[in-house]
Design brief:
By secondary structure, the protein is α/β, with parallel strands linked by helices. The protein has a domain of about 170 residues. The chain is built from five helices and eleven strands. The longest helix is centred in the last third of the chain and has 14 residues.
């Protein structure tokens, strides 16, 4: 668990699972894989086994030790809904998040159908608590089925990470979506993001009244291109709702 992070839209990271496998073009230049593989074979290092999928049961209860409220990105170095993560382990992660209600947890996945199935099985009679935000990655127009899966997930707060944006998304239905993050790719071999792709998503958010966050243009380094889109910084977040209050989150 890291109390500090360079990710602009969160305060901390928590990784009860590390490692993953690639499933779509957004994974091609994965920063987490690139970082992890640097330490493969280093005896005793947390990433001694590189980016191999690993459960970290000793980390499951870490957020309970942090008494100051934080916004926590869950599994910045993996995907909680990877098919090889047992449902029982995912349940233990959700047990911790429910107990640590003073934090806000942000869960992001590319495995949207598996998330939908898990969430709708665990939360049959009530939605996921409002301090647990569920999101999906959408890197281009071919990945929009993930948005439909998210929309059909029994949650109060839903968000999209349109990052790395490697192609035009096209028409985007933002019904019941509360937040959208857009960012370009960074690192060796990065694929440049075109300004019209970013504007298209931003304009959809404005029309739908959905909070819009522009993370970065990307480049060889994450900060290379800065964070301005059309002369301004877009740092919008979804409006919070109080825990245990039903209803729809305002966009």
């Amino acid at each position: 668990m890291a109390d500090k992070t360079s990710i602009e839209w969160t305060n901390a990271t928590w990784n009860p699972v590390t490692g993953c496998t690639k499933i779509s073009p957004g994974c091609d230049h994965c920063y987490a894989e690139r970082f992890s593989e640097r330490f493969r074979g280093v005896k005793g290092h947390p990433f001694e086994y590189g980016f191999d999928l690993m459960l970290r049961p000793d980390r499951v209860k870490q957020p309970l030790q942090w008494k100051r409220p934080r916004m926590i990105f869950v599994n910045s170095m993996s995907d909680l809904f990877h098919k090889d993560v047992p449902a029982g382990f995912v349940n233990s992660v959700f047990d911790t998040m429910e107990k640590a209600h003073w934090h806000t947890f942000q869960i992001l996945t590319k495995r949207s159908s598996l998330m939908q199935k898990f969430i709708n099985s665990r939360y049959v009679d009530k939605p996921v608590p409002s301090h647990i935000w569920l999101g999906v990655s959408v890197e281009d127009g071919k990945r929009k089925s993930r948005v439909a899966h998210l929309r059909n997930t029994n949650a109060l707060v839903r968000f999209l990470s349109v990052e790395p944006l490697v192609g035009p998304v096209g028409k985007l239905d933002l019904t019941d979506i509360h937040w959208v993050i857009v960012g370009g790719e960074s690192g060796p071999g990065y694929r440049p993001m075109r300004v019209d792709w970013a504007r298209e998503v931003r304009d959809e958010c404005i029309r739908a009244g959905v909070a819009f966050f522009f993370k970065q243009w990307g480049g060889y380094r994450p900060k290379t291109g800065g964070r301005e889109l059309d002369g301004r910084i877009w740092d919008e977040f979804p409006e919070p709702i109080e825990p245990d209050i039903g209803g729809v989150l305002a966009g």
